[in-house]
Specification:
Blueprint lengths: L7 H7 L26 H8 L14 H14 L3 E5 L2 H12 L5 E5 L4 H13 L3 E5 L15 E7 L11 H10 L3 E5 L4 H4 L9 E5 L13 E5 L4 H11 L5 H12 L1 H20 L4 E5 L9 H7 L6 E6 L4 H9 L16 E5 L16 E5 L5 H15 L8
Parallel strand pairs: 2-3, 2-4, 4-5, 5-6
Antiparallel strand pairs: 1-7, 6-7, 8-9, 9-11, 10-11
Helix pairs in contact: 3-9, 4-5, 4-8, 10-13, 12-13
Bound molecules: pyridoxal-5'-phosphate.
């Protein structure tokens, strides 16, 4: 089913399911299976040679898993996809699969923290050179290339700072130098950024976030191009890191409502962000979909929509005031991750992790995730919170 024929809301409802294969059940059931019995010795021997048509062992090929993989690959326009047990497995497995000792890996300075740690500890240990690039370089990333640069790892908008990258320009530079581009596309999801149309070779998702969508499932997805997929598939098979059928079932369930949730969350997120912009306590709102925000022009050029994770910079204020703001929130919870139905808020310190670029903001930062609540209720919660910055008494939770 091509997206030339159907819009996104229709696609997410219909991709990756075939009710007639499962007694008419609308949703592909959870397959709990390890041992698969072969009808004949000839079949068993075919499986040993990799020529068996059926599923040889429950580690690979169960329908709940393959249906999710096929749906995501088609949605994003990639060749094929792999489901893995977490978003972090999705960011790290392609690095292991595609880099060799002696290669140089260029990673965005705005990368998700645990991905950065994996590069610094493990890729380096395996003999891969790692350096970081300013996410705003665009085509100027050429000056960061070394003769042995084989992979660029991008993330756009970036974790914490939401820097939007010129992915097409980066991919052009990389391909001219025989390097591959991997992108962490978790923020946009396959619906809002079609990574392969921008020249990306591997797109990865923390499906834990918007795709699963309910803060109850750890899940990662890796979508490869035709050229990269065999190596990704080889390592995925040899490490045995498939996602479980239960989690893929929840991933598929989340996918069915993804377009609807994102449409609502885009609108609510923009409403909350615009309101925050009017507040004297707020120095800057960093939300790529807001005209005038950092990253807006590239976002407008390349993205089909926005999600609801963004940042704000407060005017300089003491820690105790920020703690009072956060401790008293009634609807916004404080916690890692995002993508569920509930709104979240945390303090962030992007300047602590950067090494290739300086992060300049005019004050302390908060990251907001707008969930499915009524945006006016969220605004009221934030209004009370901002009032607490001035030292007013916090309302108990
Ligand atoms: C959360 C996140 C991940 C990791 O996902 P987990 O499922 O929590 O391991 C990777 N990349 C980005 C951008 C994320 O926000």
């Amino acid at each position: 089913m091509s997206d030339k024929l159907h819009n996104k809301a229709t696609q997410v409802g219909h991709l990756g399911r075939a009710p007639q294969k499962f007694m008419g059940a609308v949703n592909t059931p959870v397959f709990r299976a390890t041992t698969m019995l072969f009808p004949t010795v000839a079949d068993l021997e075919a499986a040993v040679r990799g020529k068996y048509e059926g599923i040889g062992y429950g580690l690979h090929g169960l329908p709940t898993v393959t249906d999710l993989q096929n749906a995501i690959a088609e949605l994003e326009g990639g060749h094929a996809a792999l489901a893995v047990p977490s978003g972090l497995t999705a960011t790290t497995l392609p690095l292991l699969a595609l880099a060799n000792p002696g290669d140089h890996l260029l990673v965005t300075d705005s990368v998700y923290g645990p991905t950065r740690r994996f590069c610094d500890l493990h890729m380096k240990r395996l003999g891969v050179e790692v350096s970081y690039y300013d996410p705003l370089l665009g085509a100027d990333i050429a000056r960061e290339f070394r003769p042995n640069t084989r992979i660029v790892f991008a993330e756009s908008p970036g974790s914490l700072t939401f820097d939007v990258q010129d992915v097409s320009a980066i991919a052009k530079v990389a391909h001219a130098r025989s390097a591959l581009v991997i992108i962490d596309n978790s923020w946009a999801t396959p619906l809002n950024f079609r990574a392969f149309d921008h020249g990306v070779d591997v797109s990865v998702h923390a499906a834990t976030k918007y795709i699963a969508g309910h803060s109850d499932t750890l899940l990662g997805l890796i979508v490869g191009s035709e050229a990269t997929f065999p190596k990704l598939h080889r390592l995925w098979t040899d490490m045995g890191v498939t996602a479980s059928s239960d989690d893929c079932f929840l991933g598929l369930r989340g996918l069915r409502t993804l377009a609807t949730r994102l449409a609502r969350q885009q609108a609510s997120g923009i409403k909350v962000a615009e309101w925050l912009r009017t507040r004297p306590e707020v120095n800057e709102v960093i939300h790529p979909a807001l005209p005038g925000s950092r990253g807006h022009e590239l976002w407008k050029r390349d993205f089909a929509g926005a999600t609801s994770l963004f940042g704000i910079v407060l005017n300089p204020v003491g820690k105790a005031c920020i703690d009072a703001l956060l401790d008293g929130m009634r609807l916004f919870g404080m916690g890692w991750s995002w993508g569920g139905f509930e709104s979240l808020i945390i303090p962030i310190y992007p300047e602590r992790t950067r090494t290739a670029s300086r992060w300049e903001a005019g004050g302390p930062m908060l990251r907001l995730y707008v969930g499915l609540e009524d945006p006016d209720d969220l605004i009221a919660d934030l209004a009370d919170g901002l009032a607490r910055l001035g030292g007013q008494v916090a309302t108990p939770r």
